[in-house]
Design goal:
This protein is of the alpha/beta class. It has helices at about 35-45, 85-100, 120-130, 150-160, 180-204, and strands at about 5-10, 25-30, 60-65, 70-75, 105-115, 135-140, 170. The chain has one domain: 3-Layer(aba) Sandwich (Rossmann fold), CATH 3.40.50. Helix content is about 35%, strand content about 20%.
Amino acid sequence: MIFQNAEFTASYGKISQIPSPERMEFAFLGRSNVGKSSLINKLVNRKSLARVSTVPGKTATINFYQVDEVYFVDLPGYGYAKTSRSEQERLRKLISGYLNLDRNLELVIQLIDSRHAPSADDIQMTEFLVESEIPFIIVFTKTDKLNHSERKAREEGFSREIPYFDDVHKIWFSSKTGEGLERLQEILSEIADDTEDFSEQGDA
């Protein structure tokens, strides 16, 4: 999988606008300002493929990026308190609507800020993914902002706070230092290659 072969495809503000799936998809979701855009940019080694904003709640659409032969799907950030109730509800329906569609969704990457305990929205999302049997991993972001003792404390905290913690694959990630980048790329490449090989066998 060639991560540098990446380009923005389209943004959708309504579920009805999203076309039928053309290829496998990897979806990225998390709280507002958790670092989704920074992670996507780091994955593809681009500075501004996904727009990074200092304003929480900025991503209000579902953004598709073609990366080699797959789509990266950047879902809106959830849980930003200063967003109006009607907008929060719209974003919630947009996220859940996408996740409930019959698409070629191979993996969800749930991002959680490593510095803080998971929010109620984070926990609810983890439970939803498990109950819906949607394959997912958790990526803890902004690890460069933690010292050794703070990180150890958060690791212990997450083990108590996150549902099904021991059963979920986890990656500690920093868009600044590159920690976790290679492992995340490996996981995505393995899934993409295995799925492509299976599809080619089916066509034979």
